[in-house]
Amino acid sequence: MSNLLTLLKTLLALPRKRVNGAASVLTGWWLIRLLWRLRLLVAVTLVVLFAYSRWGWVGLVLLAVLPPLLSFAWRVLHPQSHTWFVNALTARHRLRHTYGSRWDAVIVACDLHRPVPGGAHLTPELVKVSLVPVGDVLHVRLLDGQAPADFARQADELAHAFGVPEVRVTNAGPGRVELVLVLLDVLAQPVTLTDVPAVTDLRKVRFAIGEDGLWRTRNYANIAAEVGGGVPGSGKTAGETSLACGLIQNPAVQYVVVDGKGGEDWSWIAPRAAAYCAEDEDLNAVLAVVEQVHGLMRHRLKTQKATRGEANFWNLPLDPAHPAVFLVVDEVQTFTDTKGMDNETKQLAWQITARLSALVKKGRSAGIITRLLTQKPTSDALPTAIRDNASVRTAWRVMSKDAAEAILGPIVRDAEVSPVDIPEAMRGVAVVATDAGRLERVRFPFVDEHTAETIAARVAGLRRELTEFGAPTTDNEDQEAEDDAAGVRT
Ligand SMILES: Nc1ncnc2c1ncn2[C@@H]1O[C@H](COP(=O)(O)OP(=O)(O)OP(=O)(O)O)[C@@H](O)[C@H]1O
Protein backbone atom coordinates (compact mmCIF):
# COMPACT_ATOMS: atom_id res chain seq x y z
CA MET A 1 0.00 0.00 0.00
CA SER A 2 2.79 2.43 0.91
CA ASN A 3 4.49 1.51 -2.39
CA LEU A 4 1.33 2.41 -4.33
CA LEU A 5 1.08 5.74 -2.52
CA THR A 6 4.70 6.51 -3.32
CA LEU A 7 4.04 5.74 -7.02
CA LEU A 8 1.00 8.03 -7.04
CA LYS A 9 2.96 10.84 -5.40
CA THR A 10 5.75 10.44 -7.91
CA LEU A 11 3.29 10.55 -10.77
CA LEU A 12 1.70 13.72 -9.42
CA ALA A 13 5.09 15.30 -9.00
CA LEU A 14 6.02 14.69 -12.67
CA PRO A 15 5.89 17.67 -15.01
CA ARG A 16 2.63 17.88 -16.98
CA LYS A 17 4.14 16.48 -20.16
CA ARG A 18 5.46 13.38 -18.46
CA VAL A 19 2.14 12.88 -16.67
CA ASN A 20 0.43 13.00 -20.08
CA GLY A 21 2.93 10.39 -21.26
CA ALA A 22 2.16 8.19 -18.29
CA ALA A 23 -1.61 8.64 -18.76
CA SER A 24 -1.17 7.71 -22.36
CA VAL A 25 0.63 4.48 -21.33
CA LEU A 26 -2.08 3.65 -18.82
CA THR A 27 -5.01 4.27 -21.18
CA GLY A 28 -3.54 2.62 -24.28
CA TRP A 29 -3.78 5.92 -26.25
CA TRP A 30 -0.14 5.44 -27.25
CA LEU A 31 -1.11 2.27 -29.09
CA ILE A 32 -3.79 4.05 -31.10
CA ARG A 33 -1.35 6.81 -31.97
CA LEU A 34 1.28 4.29 -33.04
CA LEU A 35 -1.22 2.40 -35.20
CA TRP A 36 -2.38 5.67 -36.81
CA ARG A 37 1.20 6.63 -37.55
CA LEU A 38 1.81 3.26 -39.18
CA ARG A 39 -1.67 3.15 -40.77
CA LEU A 40 -0.43 2.26 -44.24
CA LEU A 41 1.60 -0.69 -42.96
CA VAL A 42 -1.31 -1.75 -40.76
CA ALA A 43 -3.78 -1.55 -43.67
CA VAL A 44 -1.49 -3.58 -45.96
CA THR A 45 -0.94 -6.19 -43.26
CA LEU A 46 -4.70 -6.51 -42.64
CA VAL A 47 -5.40 -6.87 -46.38
CA VAL A 48 -2.66 -9.55 -46.69
CA LEU A 49 -3.99 -11.44 -43.66
CA PHE A 50 -7.55 -11.22 -44.97
CA ALA A 51 -6.54 -12.48 -48.42
CA TYR A 52 -4.55 -15.35 -46.93
CA SER A 53 -7.28 -16.40 -44.49
CA ARG A 54 -9.94 -16.26 -47.24
CA TRP A 55 -8.15 -17.73 -50.27
CA GLY A 56 -4.86 -19.09 -48.93
CA TRP A 57 -1.76 -18.85 -51.15
CA VAL A 58 -3.88 -18.03 -54.21
CA GLY A 59 -5.03 -14.87 -52.42
CA LEU A 60 -1.42 -13.81 -51.80
CA VAL A 61 -0.44 -14.44 -55.41
CA LEU A 62 -3.46 -12.44 -56.63
CA LEU A 63 -2.50 -9.58 -54.29
CA ALA A 64 1.02 -9.54 -55.70
CA VAL A 65 -0.03 -9.71 -59.37
CA LEU A 66 -3.31 -7.78 -59.62
CA PRO A 67 -2.26 -4.24 -58.58
CA PRO A 68 0.64 -3.96 -61.08
CA LEU A 69 -1.55 -5.48 -63.81
CA LEU A 70 -4.40 -3.06 -63.12
CA SER A 71 -1.97 -0.13 -63.03
CA PHE A 72 -0.48 -1.22 -66.37
CA ALA A 73 -3.94 -1.57 -67.95
CA TRP A 74 -4.92 1.89 -66.65
CA ARG A 75 -1.74 3.38 -68.04
CA VAL A 76 -2.38 1.87 -71.47
CA LEU A 77 -6.06 2.85 -71.54
CA HIS A 78 -5.79 6.38 -70.16
CA PRO A 79 -2.19 7.55 -69.69
CA GLN A 80 -3.14 11.12 -68.68
CA SER A 81 -5.23 10.14 -65.66
CA HIS A 82 -2.70 7.44 -64.69
CA THR A 83 0.17 9.95 -64.78
CA TRP A 84 -1.94 12.45 -62.85
CA PHE A 85 -2.70 9.85 -60.15
CA VAL A 86 0.89 8.62 -59.84
CA ASN A 87 2.18 12.21 -59.71
CA ALA A 88 -0.40 13.13 -57.07
CA LEU A 89 0.68 10.18 -54.90
CA THR A 90 4.36 10.95 -55.40
CA ALA A 91 3.84 14.64 -54.63
CA ARG A 92 1.93 13.76 -51.44
CA HIS A 93 4.67 11.41 -50.34
CA ARG A 94 7.33 14.03 -50.99
CA LEU A 95 5.34 16.70 -49.16
CA ARG A 96 5.23 14.54 -46.04
CA HIS A 97 8.44 12.63 -46.09
CA THR A 98 11.02 14.20 -48.43
CA TYR A 99 10.48 17.91 -47.83
CA GLY A 100 8.01 18.14 -44.93
CA SER A 101 10.29 16.28 -42.54
CA ARG A 102 13.23 18.62 -43.27
CA TRP A 103 11.32 21.82 -43.89
CA ASP A 104 11.74 23.36 -40.46
CA ALA A 105 15.45 22.58 -40.29
CA VAL A 106 16.15 23.91 -43.80
CA ILE A 107 14.19 27.11 -43.22
CA VAL A 108 16.05 27.79 -39.98
CA ALA A 109 19.43 26.97 -41.57
CA CYS A 110 18.68 29.37 -44.45
CA ASP A 111 17.56 32.07 -42.04
CA LEU A 112 14.02 32.32 -43.37
CA HIS A 113 12.32 31.76 -40.00
CA ARG A 114 11.09 34.33 -37.46
CA PRO A 115 12.20 33.95 -33.82
CA VAL A 116 9.43 34.63 -31.30
CA PRO A 117 9.82 35.44 -27.58
CA GLY A 118 10.51 32.36 -25.46
CA GLY A 119 13.05 30.81 -27.83
CA ALA A 120 10.56 29.33 -30.33
CA HIS A 121 10.26 30.39 -33.97
CA LEU A 122 7.73 30.63 -36.80
CA THR A 123 8.38 29.15 -40.24
CA PRO A 124 6.61 29.82 -43.54
CA GLU A 125 4.19 27.00 -44.29
CA LEU A 126 4.97 24.33 -46.91
CA VAL A 127 1.47 23.95 -48.35
CA LYS A 128 1.85 21.63 -51.31
CA VAL A 129 4.38 19.90 -53.56
CA SER A 130 3.76 19.48 -57.28
CA LEU A 131 5.83 17.78 -59.94
CA VAL A 132 6.88 19.52 -63.16
CA PRO A 133 9.16 18.21 -65.90
CA VAL A 134 12.22 20.00 -64.48
CA GLY A 135 11.80 18.90 -60.87
CA ASP A 136 9.61 19.58 -57.82
CA VAL A 137 7.75 22.77 -56.99
CA LEU A 138 7.29 23.66 -53.33
CA HIS A 139 4.26 25.91 -52.78
CA VAL A 140 4.90 28.04 -49.73
CA ARG A 141 2.71 30.42 -47.70
CA LEU A 142 4.87 33.31 -46.53
CA LEU A 143 5.00 34.65 -43.00
CA ASP A 144 3.56 38.13 -42.57
CA GLY A 145 6.24 40.61 -43.51
CA GLN A 146 8.07 38.20 -45.86
CA ALA A 147 8.30 38.64 -49.64
CA PRO A 148 9.43 36.33 -52.48
CA ALA A 149 12.61 38.45 -52.69
CA ASP A 150 13.65 37.10 -49.25
CA PHE A 151 13.64 33.59 -50.74
CA ALA A 152 15.30 34.75 -53.97
CA ARG A 153 18.22 36.10 -51.90
CA GLN A 154 18.63 32.71 -50.22
CA ALA A 155 18.18 30.64 -53.41
CA ASP A 156 21.76 29.32 -53.32
CA GLU A 157 21.53 28.30 -49.68
CA LEU A 158 18.17 26.59 -50.33
CA ALA A 159 19.66 24.69 -53.30
CA HIS A 160 22.53 23.37 -51.17
CA ALA A 161 20.24 22.52 -48.29
CA PHE A 162 17.85 20.56 -50.52
CA GLY A 163 20.75 19.02 -52.46
CA VAL A 164 19.67 20.23 -55.93
CA PRO A 165 21.68 22.16 -58.55
CA GLU A 166 19.36 25.18 -58.54
CA VAL A 167 16.34 26.66 -56.81
CA ARG A 168 14.20 29.13 -58.80
CA VAL A 169 11.95 31.43 -56.87
CA THR A 170 8.67 32.68 -58.36
CA ASN A 171 6.09 35.02 -56.98
CA ALA A 172 2.83 33.04 -56.90
CA GLY A 173 0.50 35.82 -55.79
CA PRO A 174 -0.08 37.70 -52.54
CA GLY A 175 1.52 35.92 -49.58
CA ARG A 176 2.75 33.01 -51.67
CA VAL A 177 5.96 31.91 -53.27
CA GLU A 178 6.92 28.88 -55.35
CA LEU A 179 10.33 27.26 -55.08
CA VAL A 180 11.22 25.20 -58.14
CA LEU A 181 13.86 22.64 -57.17
CA VAL A 182 15.52 22.20 -60.54
CA LEU A 183 16.88 18.74 -61.24
CA LEU A 184 17.01 19.12 -65.02
CA ASP A 185 17.86 22.19 -67.11
CA VAL A 186 15.22 21.85 -69.84
CA LEU A 187 16.57 24.81 -71.75
CA ALA A 188 19.89 23.05 -72.29
CA GLN A 189 18.36 20.37 -74.53
CA PRO A 190 16.92 21.09 -78.00
CA VAL A 191 13.28 20.15 -78.47
CA THR A 192 12.90 18.79 -81.99
CA LEU A 193 9.40 18.34 -83.36
CA THR A 194 8.74 15.86 -86.15
CA ASP A 195 5.24 17.26 -86.61
CA VAL A 196 3.42 20.29 -85.27
CA PRO A 197 -0.18 20.21 -84.04
CA ALA A 198 -2.58 22.59 -85.77
CA VAL A 199 -3.37 25.80 -83.92
CA THR A 200 -7.12 25.85 -83.38
CA ASP A 201 -7.38 28.73 -80.94
CA LEU A 202 -5.49 31.94 -81.73
CA ARG A 203 -5.98 33.04 -78.14
CA LYS A 204 -3.83 30.16 -76.90
CA VAL A 205 -0.95 29.48 -79.27
CA ARG A 206 1.87 27.31 -77.92
CA PHE A 207 5.17 28.90 -78.91
CA ALA A 208 7.98 27.77 -76.58
CA ILE A 209 8.88 25.86 -73.43
CA GLY A 210 9.57 27.67 -70.17
CA GLU A 211 12.23 26.88 -67.57
CA ASP A 212 9.74 24.74 -65.67
CA GLY A 213 9.43 22.48 -68.72
CA LEU A 214 5.85 23.59 -69.46
CA TRP A 215 4.61 25.07 -72.73
CA ARG A 216 4.07 28.81 -72.89
CA THR A 217 1.17 30.15 -74.91
CA ARG A 218 0.41 33.49 -76.52
CA ASN A 219 -2.84 35.20 -77.10
CA TYR A 220 -2.77 36.66 -80.62
CA ALA A 221 -6.18 38.30 -80.32
CA ASN A 222 -5.87 42.05 -80.17
CA ILE A 223 -2.15 41.95 -80.92
CA ALA A 224 -0.84 44.29 -83.63
CA ALA A 225 2.80 43.41 -83.79
CA GLU A 226 5.76 41.44 -82.56
CA VAL A 227 9.43 42.25 -82.80
CA GLY A 228 12.19 39.69 -82.43
CA GLY A 229 15.94 39.98 -82.71
CA GLY A 230 19.16 38.10 -82.10
CA VAL A 231 22.61 37.55 -83.54
CA PRO A 232 22.91 35.50 -86.75
CA GLY A 233 22.33 31.84 -85.98
CA SER A 234 20.62 32.44 -82.65
CA GLY A 235 17.41 30.74 -83.82
CA LYS A 236 15.07 33.53 -84.95
CA THR A 237 13.96 31.98 -88.22
CA ALA A 238 13.73 28.49 -86.71
CA GLY A 239 11.58 29.87 -83.88
CA GLU A 240 9.25 31.59 -86.31
CA THR A 241 9.14 28.46 -88.47
CA SER A 242 7.90 26.25 -85.64
CA LEU A 243 5.21 28.81 -84.80
CA ALA A 244 4.14 29.24 -88.43
CA CYS A 245 3.90 25.45 -88.89
CA GLY A 246 1.06 25.35 -86.35
CA LEU A 247 -0.69 28.51 -87.53
CA ILE A 248 -0.80 27.70 -91.25
CA GLN A 249 -2.86 24.59 -90.52
CA ASN A 250 -5.73 26.82 -89.44
CA PRO A 251 -7.99 27.70 -92.41
CA ALA A 252 -8.77 31.05 -90.80
CA VAL A 253 -5.11 32.13 -91.00
CA GLN A 254 -3.28 33.51 -94.04
CA TYR A 255 0.47 34.08 -94.03
CA VAL A 256 2.47 36.68 -95.91
CA VAL A 257 6.26 36.37 -95.77
CA VAL A 258 8.90 38.86 -96.82
CA ASP A 259 12.42 37.53 -96.38
CA GLY A 260 14.96 40.34 -96.39
CA LYS A 261 17.83 37.87 -96.40
CA GLY A 262 16.98 37.02 -99.99
CA GLY A 263 17.67 33.35 -99.37
CA GLU A 264 15.61 30.21 -99.07
CA ASP A 265 15.00 30.14 -95.30
CA TRP A 266 11.27 30.64 -95.89
CA SER A 267 10.84 28.94 -99.27
CA TRP A 268 9.11 26.03 -97.50
CA ILE A 269 6.05 28.20 -96.89
CA ALA A 270 5.59 29.36 -100.51
CA PRO A 271 2.84 26.81 -101.42
CA ARG A 272 0.75 27.93 -98.41
CA ALA A 273 1.62 31.64 -98.24
CA ALA A 274 -0.91 34.15 -99.56
CA ALA A 275 2.15 36.12 -100.67
CA TYR A 276 5.85 35.28 -100.47
CA CYS A 277 8.71 37.57 -101.41
CA ALA A 278 12.37 36.70 -100.86
CA GLU A 279 13.79 39.93 -102.29
CA ASP A 280 16.67 41.75 -100.63
CA GLU A 281 17.46 44.08 -103.57
CA ASP A 282 14.28 44.72 -105.54
CA LEU A 283 12.55 46.92 -102.97
CA ASN A 284 9.72 47.63 -105.42
CA ALA A 285 8.65 43.99 -105.13
CA VAL A 286 8.79 44.19 -101.34
CA LEU A 287 6.82 47.44 -101.29
CA ALA A 288 4.14 45.87 -103.50
CA VAL A 289 3.58 43.03 -101.00
CA VAL A 290 3.60 45.35 -97.97
CA GLU A 291 1.23 47.76 -99.78
CA GLN A 292 -1.18 44.91 -100.41
CA VAL A 293 -1.35 43.96 -96.72
CA HIS A 294 -1.64 47.63 -95.83
CA GLY A 295 -4.48 47.96 -98.37
CA LEU A 296 -6.29 45.01 -96.78
CA MET A 297 -5.94 46.68 -93.39
CA ARG A 298 -7.45 49.91 -94.70
CA HIS A 299 -10.24 48.03 -96.43
CA ARG A 300 -11.14 46.20 -93.23
CA LEU A 301 -10.92 49.30 -91.06
CA LYS A 302 -13.26 51.16 -93.43
CA THR A 303 -15.80 48.39 -94.11
CA GLN A 304 -15.71 45.91 -91.23
CA LYS A 305 -18.33 47.59 -89.09
CA ALA A 306 -20.76 48.06 -91.98
CA THR A 307 -20.31 44.60 -93.48
CA ARG A 308 -19.70 42.42 -90.43
CA GLY A 309 -21.25 44.45 -87.62
CA GLU A 310 -18.11 45.04 -85.51
CA ALA A 311 -15.28 47.55 -85.84
CA ASN A 312 -12.86 45.21 -84.06
CA PHE A 313 -11.90 42.03 -85.95
CA TRP A 314 -11.28 40.17 -82.68
CA ASN A 315 -14.87 40.66 -81.51
CA LEU A 316 -16.01 38.56 -84.47
CA PRO A 317 -15.74 34.78 -84.78
CA LEU A 318 -12.69 33.53 -86.68
CA ASP A 319 -13.80 32.68 -90.18
CA PRO A 320 -11.80 31.40 -93.18
CA ALA A 321 -13.73 33.96 -95.27
CA HIS A 322 -12.20 36.67 -93.06
CA PRO A 323 -8.84 35.24 -91.99
CA ALA A 324 -6.35 36.63 -89.50
CA VAL A 325 -3.31 37.71 -91.54
CA PHE A 326 0.24 37.21 -90.24
CA LEU A 327 2.81 39.35 -92.04
CA VAL A 328 6.37 38.16 -91.29
CA VAL A 329 9.25 40.38 -92.33
CA ASP A 330 12.52 38.54 -91.67
CA GLU A 331 15.77 40.55 -91.59
CA VAL A 332 13.69 43.72 -91.55
CA GLN A 333 16.85 45.85 -91.31
CA THR A 334 17.30 45.23 -95.05
CA PHE A 335 14.41 47.65 -95.58
CA THR A 336 14.45 49.88 -92.51
CA ASP A 337 18.15 50.69 -92.20
CA THR A 338 18.81 53.08 -95.06
CA LYS A 339 22.54 53.58 -94.43
CA GLY A 340 24.50 53.11 -97.65
CA MET A 341 21.41 53.11 -99.93
CA ASP A 342 21.19 55.34 -103.03
CA ASN A 343 18.47 58.00 -103.04
CA GLU A 344 15.96 56.07 -105.10
CA THR A 345 16.29 52.96 -102.91
CA LYS A 346 16.06 55.15 -99.80
CA GLN A 347 12.69 56.49 -100.99
CA LEU A 348 11.40 52.95 -101.39
CA ALA A 349 12.83 51.93 -97.99
CA TRP A 350 11.10 54.89 -96.31
CA GLN A 351 7.80 53.93 -97.94
CA ILE A 352 8.17 50.32 -96.75
CA THR A 353 9.02 51.51 -93.22
CA ALA A 354 6.05 53.89 -93.23
CA ARG A 355 3.67 51.11 -94.27
CA LEU A 356 5.10 48.72 -91.66
CA SER A 357 4.80 51.43 -89.04
CA ALA A 358 1.12 51.98 -89.96
CA LEU A 359 0.46 48.22 -89.82
CA VAL A 360 2.09 47.98 -86.40
CA LYS A 361 0.01 50.89 -85.13
CA LYS A 362 -3.36 50.13 -86.68
CA GLY A 363 -3.38 46.46 -87.71
CA ARG A 364 -4.82 45.10 -84.46
CA SER A 365 -8.50 45.78 -85.04
CA ALA A 366 -8.15 44.67 -88.68
CA GLY A 367 -6.88 41.22 -87.63
CA ILE A 368 -3.42 41.80 -89.09
CA ILE A 369 -0.41 40.79 -87.02
CA THR A 370 2.94 42.10 -88.19
CA ARG A 371 6.03 40.24 -87.06
CA LEU A 372 9.40 41.87 -87.60
CA LEU A 373 12.65 39.96 -87.13
CA THR A 374 16.16 41.30 -87.24
CA GLN A 375 19.73 40.26 -86.59
CA LYS A 376 20.63 43.92 -86.11
CA PRO A 377 18.57 45.13 -83.19
CA THR A 378 19.50 48.79 -83.18
CA SER A 379 17.18 51.76 -83.28
CA ASP A 380 18.13 52.26 -86.97
CA ALA A 381 16.94 48.77 -87.88
CA LEU A 382 14.03 48.67 -85.47
CA PRO A 383 12.75 52.23 -85.13
CA THR A 384 11.52 52.83 -81.57
CA ALA A 385 8.17 54.03 -82.97
CA ILE A 386 7.70 50.50 -84.31
CA ARG A 387 9.19 48.67 -81.33
CA ASP A 388 7.16 50.58 -78.76
CA ASN A 389 3.92 49.61 -80.50
CA ALA A 390 4.85 45.94 -80.61
CA SER A 391 3.41 44.30 -77.53
CA VAL A 392 5.12 40.95 -78.09
CA ARG A 393 8.92 40.99 -78.00
CA THR A 394 11.40 38.16 -78.28
CA ALA A 395 15.15 38.48 -77.80
CA TRP A 396 17.30 35.57 -78.84
CA ARG A 397 21.02 35.81 -78.03
CA VAL A 398 22.43 39.33 -78.43
CA MET A 399 25.89 40.74 -77.75
CA SER A 400 25.14 43.93 -75.83
CA LYS A 401 22.74 45.46 -73.35
CA ASP A 402 21.89 48.12 -75.94
CA ALA A 403 20.82 45.45 -78.41
CA ALA A 404 18.75 43.76 -75.68
CA GLU A 405 17.11 47.09 -74.90
CA ALA A 406 16.41 47.78 -78.59
CA ILE A 407 14.23 44.66 -78.61
CA LEU A 408 12.83 44.31 -75.11
CA GLY A 409 12.79 47.95 -74.05
CA PRO A 410 14.20 49.52 -70.85
CA ILE A 411 12.66 46.75 -68.66
CA VAL A 412 15.65 44.54 -69.52
CA ARG A 413 18.08 46.84 -67.68
CA ASP A 414 16.79 45.81 -64.25
CA ALA A 415 15.66 42.28 -65.10
CA GLU A 416 17.16 39.14 -63.57
CA VAL A 417 17.44 37.47 -66.98
CA SER A 418 19.04 38.94 -70.06
CA PRO A 419 19.46 37.74 -73.66
CA VAL A 420 23.12 38.79 -73.37
CA ASP A 421 23.69 35.86 -70.99
CA ILE A 422 22.36 33.19 -73.37
CA PRO A 423 25.35 30.97 -74.31
CA GLU A 424 26.16 30.63 -78.02
CA ALA A 425 25.50 26.90 -77.93
CA MET A 426 21.94 27.43 -76.72
CA ARG A 427 20.44 28.20 -80.13
CA GLY A 428 16.68 28.57 -79.92
CA VAL A 429 16.72 29.94 -76.35
CA ALA A 430 15.26 33.43 -76.01
CA VAL A 431 14.06 35.94 -73.44
CA VAL A 432 10.38 36.92 -73.63
CA ALA A 433 8.01 38.91 -71.48
CA THR A 434 5.38 36.96 -69.55
CA ASP A 435 1.71 38.01 -69.32
CA ALA A 436 2.60 39.59 -65.97
CA GLY A 437 5.28 41.73 -67.68
CA ARG A 438 8.23 39.83 -66.17
CA LEU A 439 11.05 38.58 -68.40
CA GLU A 440 11.73 34.85 -68.61
CA ARG A 441 13.89 32.48 -70.63
CA VAL A 442 12.19 30.03 -72.97
CA ARG A 443 13.27 27.48 -75.57
CA PHE A 444 11.65 27.47 -78.99
CA PRO A 445 11.10 24.04 -80.48
CA PHE A 446 13.03 23.16 -83.63
CA VAL A 447 11.28 22.04 -86.80
CA ASP A 448 13.63 21.20 -89.65
CA GLU A 449 12.80 22.65 -93.05
CA HIS A 450 11.81 19.30 -94.57
CA THR A 451 9.19 18.80 -91.87
CA ALA A 452 8.02 22.38 -92.41
CA GLU A 453 7.86 21.77 -96.17
CA THR A 454 5.75 18.62 -95.65
CA ILE A 455 3.32 20.50 -93.40
CA ALA A 456 3.02 23.42 -95.85
CA ALA A 457 2.40 21.02 -98.77
CA ARG A 458 -0.23 19.16 -96.71
CA VAL A 459 -2.25 22.34 -96.14
CA ALA A 460 -1.46 24.16 -99.40
CA GLY A 461 -5.19 23.96 -100.25
CA LEU A 462 -5.90 26.50 -97.50
CA ARG A 463 -3.94 29.20 -99.34
CA ARG A 464 -5.97 32.18 -100.56
CA GLU A 465 -5.09 35.36 -102.45
CA LEU A 466 -5.42 38.46 -100.27
CA THR A 467 -7.42 40.06 -103.08
CA GLU A 468 -10.26 37.62 -102.21
CA PHE A 469 -10.65 39.49 -98.93
CA GLY A 470 -10.61 42.99 -100.34
CA ALA A 471 -6.88 43.70 -100.63
CA PRO A 472 -5.79 45.64 -103.72
CA THR A 473 -3.87 43.78 -106.39
CA THR A 474 -0.10 44.17 -106.43
CA ASP A 475 1.56 45.90 -109.38
CA ASN A 476 2.89 42.49 -110.44
CA GLU A 477 -0.65 41.11 -110.57
CA ASP A 478 -1.78 44.12 -112.62
CA GLN A 479 1.05 43.40 -115.01
CA GLU A 480 0.15 39.70 -115.19
CA ALA A 481 -3.50 40.59 -115.84
CA GLU A 482 -2.47 42.97 -118.62
CA ASP A 483 -0.18 40.29 -120.06
CA ASP A 484 -3.02 37.76 -119.92
CA ALA A 485 -5.35 40.18 -121.67
CA ALA A 486 -2.73 40.78 -124.32
CA GLY A 487 -2.12 37.04 -124.66
CA VAL A 488 1.53 37.39 -123.61
CA ARG A 489 1.40 34.55 -121.00
CA THR A 490 0.85 31.03 -122.17
N1 LIG B 1 15.16 25.97 -81.31
C1 LIG B 1 16.28 25.43 -81.75
N2 LIG B 1 16.72 24.28 -81.25
C2 LIG B 1 17.85 23.73 -81.71
N3 LIG B 1 18.63 24.25 -82.68
C3 LIG B 1 18.24 25.40 -83.22
C4 LIG B 1 17.05 26.05 -82.79
N4 LIG B 1 16.92 27.17 -83.50
C5 LIG B 1 17.97 27.22 -84.33
N5 LIG B 1 18.77 26.17 -84.18
C6 LIG B 1 20.01 25.89 -84.92
O1 LIG B 1 20.60 27.10 -85.28
C7 LIG B 1 20.68 27.24 -86.68
C8 LIG B 1 20.43 28.68 -87.08
O2 LIG B 1 19.10 29.00 -86.78
P1 LIG B 1 18.30 30.16 -87.54
O3 LIG B 1 18.51 30.06 -89.02
O4 LIG B 1 16.94 30.16 -87.05
O5 LIG B 1 19.10 31.41 -87.01
P2 LIG B 1 18.80 32.94 -87.29
O6 LIG B 1 18.90 33.61 -85.98
O7 LIG B 1 17.55 33.10 -88.05
O8 LIG B 1 20.05 33.32 -88.17
P3 LIG B 1 20.14 34.41 -89.35
O9 LIG B 1 19.92 35.73 -88.73
O10 LIG B 1 21.50 34.24 -89.89
O11 LIG B 1 19.04 34.03 -90.33
C9 LIG B 1 19.64 26.26 -87.23
O12 LIG B 1 19.96 25.81 -88.51
C10 LIG B 1 19.69 25.15 -86.21
O13 LIG B 1 20.76 24.28 -86.51
UniProtKB/TrEMBL annotation:
Binding site for ATP: G230, V231, P232, G233, S234, G235, K236, T237
Keyword ATP-binding set for record: yes
Signal peptide start and end residues: none
Membrane-crossing segments per the record: 31-50, 57-77
Keywords, ordered alphabetically: ATP-binding, Membrane, Nucleotide-binding, Transmembrane, Transmembrane helix
Coiled-coil stretches: none
GO molecular function: ATP binding; DNA binding
Transmembrane helix listed as a keyword: yes
Region (Disordered): 467-490
Compositional bias (Acidic residues): 475-490
Domain FtsK residues, every copy: 188-405
Protein origin, superkingdom: Bacteria
SUPFAM superfamilies given in the database record: P-loop containing nucleoside triphosphate hydrolases
Name under which the protein is recorded: FtsK domain-containing protein
Organism: Jiangella mangrovi
